Amino acid sequence: MTSSSGSSRPPVPRQRRSRRRSGRTPGRDSPAPSALGDFQTLPLEIFQMVLNYLSVKDISMLSMVSKTISGRLINYICTSSGSRRLLLQDFHQELPARREGASILEHYRALGLLLKRCTLLLPTRDRLKYVHKVLSGVSCFKLNGCASPLHCLGLQCYGVFLQILTAGWDELECHRVFNFLWELSNLARKVQTVVSSKPGSARRLELRIRLFCRGVLLSPGSRRSDSAFWLTRILKPWPMVNQARLLYIIFGPVSSRDGHVVWQKMIEGPTDETSLKGLADAIKLLYGTEAREWTADDVISLVDELSVVPQEWLMENNARLLLLSGNSICFTFMASKAVNGRAVELARLMVFMVLVCEKDLYCMDWAVKMMQKVCKVFSTPWERNNFLQCLENSFARMLTDLLQAVLAGERDEEDSSFLNLFHLMNAQANFHKEILYMAMGSSSSSS
């Protein structure tokens, strides 16, 4: 007997049964999403045309979407259209505001971030090769590439680009960057030429090395630790005498007319703070905690060697450099002379420090306190008293010499002999006044 309900059941479609047997779900056969996203549907030419409408910062953000897009951007940057779009080369005048409201320096800062992100997964060596391939066509990025280097922003743009590219890299990677640039520019041979030749005999090469080191390796705005690292890499391969020459080439005074290094500036007469500030800042950088490879003795020896480049400096210029270099380096330098028994030299230097304080309007009590600190370095009362005697003798000798020059009528257009006598007399009076204030203050407090 058959059931009436079984005869009324509708037949199951064969297709549906087979789908159930296979266990597949609807939509499983659709293609997997592409790493290019919506850009998958665009031909490569259209994709690159779209990039022309994006700012460098936007392209940099796009490079982080996926490895596939990053690869496409790497290829785009090397194309002729990509190079024209990204490698701006109007370095000889400041550009008007762009779409993103940035100057050419900011443009290359953004470009550095773009290439940093695009090459993130590559080894350091391959990253450097790729960057060199991209930038090799820009002549103003080369040490001898620009015909008018003093009026060119090329090396500064290269510097900010490199600063962003290498930010956060470990020390070993930065060593590789330095070696790569050093070999690429053949800097070892060129530096050897300028440090072993007569000062000023290779003026153009001195200028090129100065601009390259300051613009590219010691880019303005860099962190102190980064600047200390690059400056150490530049100086350390050379003997101390060559380090001093190279330091003067990079940071010494230059002519306002043609930008060439002025070698006689420290020898011919007293100079101003502006001419010494670059050297003083470099010395402070090497003496600071950021420069781990330099000891205090290294820096003192470098300062000592610098004071005879290219010949012995006027003592007033030595004193001014030490004052600009800061209290720590100034005291360490003077204390080394005290420890080594060079009391006469130390006393003469102290007199010129007093003179610089008077001329440059520093507080004279600084000089008195520095003298007090130095006196504590001497191990015996006799050595301290001998130094103080030498100090007063130096004042007397210098005043006598200047007075004789004035009486003999040795005057130039600026009447410098009389002016120096005036400054030295005031300096001595103010120095001794501060000592009397200090002595009377001590006696009053003790009573």
From TrEMBL:
<dbReference type="InterPro" id="IPR056622">
    <property type="entry name" value="ARM_FBXO47"/>
</dbReference>
<protein>
    <submittedName>
        <fullName>FBX47 protein</fullName>
    </submittedName>
</protein>
<dbReference type="InterPro" id="IPR038946">
    <property type="entry name" value="FBXO47"/>
</dbReference>
<dbReference type="Pfam" id="PF24467">
    <property type="entry name" value="ARM_FBXO47"/>
</dbReference>
<feature type="domain" description="F-box">
    <location>
        <begin position="36"/>
        <end position="86"/>
    </location>
</feature>
<dbReference type="Pfam" id="PF00646">
    <property type="entry name" value="F-box"/>
</dbReference>
<feature type="region of interest" description="Disordered">
    <location>
        <begin position="1"/>
        <end position="36"/>
    </location>
</feature>
<dbReference type="InterPro" id="IPR001810">
    <property type="entry name" value="F-box_dom"/>
</dbReference>
<feature type="compositionally biased region" description="Basic residues">
    <location>
        <begin position="14"/>
        <end position="23"/>
    </location>
</feature>
<dbReference type="InterPro" id="IPR036047">
    <property type="entry name" value="F-box-like_dom_sf"/>
</dbReference>
